[in-house]
Design a protein that fits this description.
Largest sheet: none
Helix content: over 70%
Number of helices: 14
Shape: globular
Strand content: under 5%
Order of helices and strands: HHHHHHHHHHHHHH
Distance between the termini: 17 Å
Number of strands: 0
Length: 402
């Protein structure tokens, strides 16, 4: 498989980080010629639809490349995702939510459907795939399709003048929930199962199967956990949200137990990446249980630092480290001193970012207005993240030149 799309996915990751640096530097340049909300929308879309989507698809292609019959079609899908994602990023920078940015966002959804059809047909035709991989892949593809209902509903809500109501935010949370808790989480676990199976590494298949069904069916009521702040929800919605979060948490525990004992098969960097990935998945799932408490849920929903910290823990931490680790496992990312240094700097930036966000939230809760050096600390953390990503990418470029 061409390494071009590995470079493109890492380029998108770097663009995500650099736009994050720009947002963190905004307090020092309040009259910057690009509005803050334009940068924010561009940043979030390139992170989820550029870096994460293409990164996951590239890993799948690398693992199955020798058996893929329609390689040309696979490359055309990758190229389409690249062009549409890049155009979408610049459209959001230029106009925020407007006709052109919405057009390219919609085109990306159709490109996603194309990728779904391609992957599903491949799964149906190739019986060599581990059954558990196919199970997780199919669950992920279904979650991806369901997530697209969110953007469609946004168009209906906006057309009827309901943009300032709760339905608008509920649609966004619906989309995000089925994207990162559904599509990305399940597909990445399926990819890991494929990698372990190809290397004849043992894992507890019964736990993985049980973990999948618990997690997948809990995804649907688990969505309500994101919207408990909406006025007028019945107590039954709270019960469903609690059941969903507990079910997802138990499902995650089964999945984590299934992969226990993997470290001896991998390099130190790969083992460390998997360890951090699983730890972040556990922390993410456990933190969601706290929203069952109405008092704590209200605090969380009203504290922007917690919401941003959670999103970064999920997408920048769990999802991104999982993708980078699987790049290494799939031999798309070399394991050398440069990649180790890049990963270390990236990880330090991540820890610094999370500590500052959650510490700031905690101080707000106990009545202290703000954390000293909070803004400058977050800027430094974002610079470290971008620097780490650039060094990781340069290790791939260095390898490609040899």
């Amino acid at each position: 498989m061409k390494k071009t799309y590995v470079h493109i996915s890492l380029l998108f990751f770097l663009i995500t980080a650099l736009s994050g640096v720009l947002m963190r530097a905004f307090p020092y340049f309040p009259n910057f010629f690009i509005p803050y909300d334009h940068i924010l929308h561009a940043h979030s879309h390139i992170a989820l639809l550029g870096w994460a989507f293409l990164g996951v698809f590239v890993i799948f292609l690398k693992l199955e490349w020798e058996r893929i019959a329609k390689r040309r079609q696979a490359m055309v899908i990758c190229f389409t995702l690249f062009v549409v994602s890049l155009c979408m990023f610049f459209a959001f920078l230029g106009q925020g939510y407007g006709f052109i940015s919405i057009l390219f966002s919609t085109l990306h959804i159709f490109a996603e459907y194309w990728a779904v059809i391609f992957i599903y047909r491949y799964i149906k035709r190739n019986r060599h795939l581990p059954k558990l991989s196919s199970l997780y892949y199919k669950g992920a593809l279904l979650a991806l399709i369901i997530s697209s209902f969110g953007p469609y509903s946004l168009a209906i809500i906006s057309a009827n003048g309901w943009k300032d109501g709760a339905l608008y935010d509920m649609s966004i949370y619906f989309y995000l929930h089925f994207q990162y808790n559904g599509w990305l989480t399940l597909f990445l676990i399926g990819l890991l199962i494929t990698i372990l199976s190809s290397q004849k590494i043992q894992f507890k298949q019964r736990y993985l199967k049980l973990g999948f069904w618990l997690y997948f069916f809990s995804l649907f009521p688990g969505y309500l956990l994101s919207v408990l702040w909406v006025e007028g929800l019945t107590s039954f919605a709270n019960v469903l949200a609690a059941a969903g979060s507990i079910g997802q948490w138990i499902g995650v525990l089964f999945i984590l137990f299934a992969f226990h004992g993997y470290k001896k098969y991998f390099s130190k960097l790969e083992a460390f990446g998997l360890k951090i990935t699983f730890l972040l998945l556990f922390l993410k799932s456990t933190s969601e249980l706290g929203l069952i408490s109405p008092v704590l849920a209200e605090l969380v929903y009203d504290t922007r630092s917690v919401v941003i910290g959670y999103l970064h823990l999920t997408l920048l931490g769990f999802i991104s480290i999982f993708i980078l680790t699987q790049f290494a496992l799939a031999k798309l990312l070399p394991i050398n001193q440069k990649s180790r240094n890049g990963f270390a700097i990236f990880f330090i930036g991540l820890i610094m970012n999370e500590l500052l966000l959650f510490a700031d939230a905690f101080l707000q809760w106990i009545g202290i207005r703000t954390l000293p050096f909070h803004i400058s600390g977050l800027l430094i953390a974002s610079i470290l993240l971008a620097l780490g990503i650039f060094i990781i990418w340069s290790s791939v470029m260095h390898k490609s030149s040899h």
